[in-house]
Amino acid sequence: MADYIVGLTGGIGSGKTTIANLFADKGITLVDADVIARDMVAPNSPALQAIIERYGAHILDNQGQLDRAKLRLRVFDDDDERTWLNGLLHPMIRKHMLKQAREARSEYAIMVVPLLVENSLTQMVNRILVVDVDPETQITRTMARDKVTREQVQAILDAQASRQDRLTLADDVIANEQTMEQLTLTVEQLHQSYLQAARQYQLTQE
Questions:
Q1: Are 97 and 110 in a shared domain?
Q2: Are 2 and 104 within 8 A, CB to CB?
Q3: Residue 57 belongs to what domain range?
Q4: Which Enzyme Commission number(s) are on file for it (predicted)?
Q5: Overall domain count for the chain
Q6: Which one, 76, 84, 116, 202, has the greatest CB density within 10 A?
Q7: Are 93 and 158 in a shared domain?
Q8: Does 29 count as an annotated binding residue?
Q9: Considering the chain, what is the average pLDDT of its residues?
């Protein structure tokens, strides 16, 4: 049971998954907000039913799953609709993230939350780890990964917290333009630091 939670965040294309997996390789439980968000809108879920009632069945794909791309387009430029959707999903996602983190078998848990800063979720974690890269690297990586245009990536970047906002809130930063060998060493150093912090935190709770 992990009482100490490290929030891992970063902008699109920063390489959060790579860093998270390096911690997982050390036996640390990962709590992934994106995975939980997908689970919340699985077929026949109450959240999906509410989304269908609001937007119609055309929001589904041919397999009856939520078409996340269509939903993003529907709410991206509409503050009212985005507020409605966030109000529906965010409380459920937060509840399940905390539940999974508390049930972690490792000494601390890594909570992977892309929008940790944007959605004001920093109070859920004990420490904030930001994965940081140059904005041009974010753009080129995301274009290659998602087969999208520069303009589409830039629109996403503009909608996210700024690089400076994330860095200002960070307790730790990984510059993710290193070699895998360097990243592995950096993660090992942070891992040892988090183990120590988790043990000290546990002592204060007893």
A1: no
A2: yes
A3: 37-101
A4: 2.7.1.24
A5: 2
A6: 116
A7: no
A8: no
A9: 92
45 and 132 share one domain = no
Residue 177's CB: how many other CB atoms inside 10 A? 13
> Looking at the structure, do residues 150 and 187 belong to the same domain, yes or no?
yes
Closest listed residue to residue 101, CA positions, set 197, 41, 36 = 36
Determine whether the annotation assigns residue 142 to a binding site. no
Asked which of 8-22, 89-103, 143-157 is least confident by mean pLDDT, the reply is: 143-157
In this prediction, residues 88-115 reach a mean pLDDT of 93
Q: Please list the residues that pair with 30 across neighbouring strands.
A: 110
User: Tell me, what amino acid is at 136?
Assistant: E
- Other beta carbons less than 10 A from residue 3's beta carbon: 16
Q: What is the DSSP string of 45-83?
A: -HHHHHHHHHH-GGGB-TTSSB-HHHHHHHHHT-HHHHH
Q: Which two tokens stand for residue 11?
A: 């902008």
| pLDDT tens by residue, 40-82 | 999 999 999 999 999 999 999 999 999 988 898 888 778 899 8
Q: What is the per-residue pLDDT for 159?
A: 83
The percentage of the chain sitting over the pLDDT mark of 90, rounded to a whole number, equals 72
Is the C-alpha dihedral spanning 31, 17, 123, 88 positive or negative? Answer: negative
Strands 29-32 and 127-132: unpaired
Give the mean pLDDT of 4-12: 95
- Tokens 């993710």 correspond to 176
Contact (CB, 8 A) for 4 and 109? yes
Q: Is 17 annotated as a binding residue?
A: yes
Cα–Cα distances in angstroms (integers) from residue 168 to residues 154, 163, 186, in the given order: 21, 9, 20
The angle, 0 to 180 degrees and rounded to 10, between the axes of the packed helices 180-205 and 16-24 is: 60
